[in-house]
């Protein structure tokens, strides 16, 4: 167990009495350590219990806000909790997406597949509203960079580019996590929001947080978040502290 940074602990203590409260988090790299195979990204042990405890506090809503599709997020996490499940970077907000996006996504996947197949270790992930080109397991950094450039060049202007950690995602919607969390905040009438995230797509949320909110960047890199912790283990410590404060 690591100590939660003092400034963050103080901010959470100040926020803990406010209701309604929204506690939202990204999944990969925050609630689950990054691994080579996206389908094997299980939660950090103890994280499900920490989230369930927070969700059990009166007036508190827990939301999982992921780039993954909701069905995939449920499967990979193994969680069933009473959470708000927001997937596909916010495109899946009220439930599964309609089928009309699927044909555009499939055509995109067909265009990208030969590029990915030509690079050993690269992986194509077809998701509800996007296609992701993963290079985490490409041994040659030049080949990885070149594949990401080629995928970027293959994107027509109707697509939304979402670069992330060893990945470039091309989305057939312009949804973003910042809009999704703002919509949740408004819907719940939340007077404060806690958000944890590790990647570029999470910056859309951090940029929209206000002075009453607490944003926590997990890991390195530039951020608009007011607080930072080192890794998913430290993120778990934040959730455990928040659970204690809300109890
Ligand atoms: O918004 P998130 O919940 O963080 O999802 C972002 C993307 O996460 C996954 O990719 C990332 O995690 C993989 C497993 O650890 C890792 O192999 C990959 O390099 C990371 O980019 C997921 O596969 C994507 O679909 C999500 O958009």
Automatic annotation (TrEMBL):
Substrates-to-products reaction catalysed: alpha,alpha-trehalose 6-phosphate + H2O = alpha,alpha-trehalose + phosphate
Keywords: Hydrolase, Magnesium, Metal-binding
InterPro entries linked: HAD-like_sf, HAD_sf, OTSB-like, Trehalose_PPase
Recorded metabolic or biological pathway in which this protein acts: Glycan biosynthesis; trehalose biosynthesis
Record flagged with keyword Repeat: no
Cofactors (names): Mg(2+)
GO biological process: trehalose biosynthetic process
EC number: 3.1.3.12
Pfam family, one: Trehalose_PPase
Metal-binding as UniProt keyword: yes
Highest taxon of the lineage: Bacteria
GO MF entries: metal ion binding; trehalose-phosphatase activity
Listed NCBIfam families: T6PP (TIGR00685)
Role summary: Removes the phosphate from trehalose 6-phosphate to produce free trehalose.
Recorded family membership: Belongs to the trehalose phosphatase family.
Protein name listed in UniProt: Trehalose 6-phosphate phosphatase
Provenance organism: Geodermatophilus obscurus
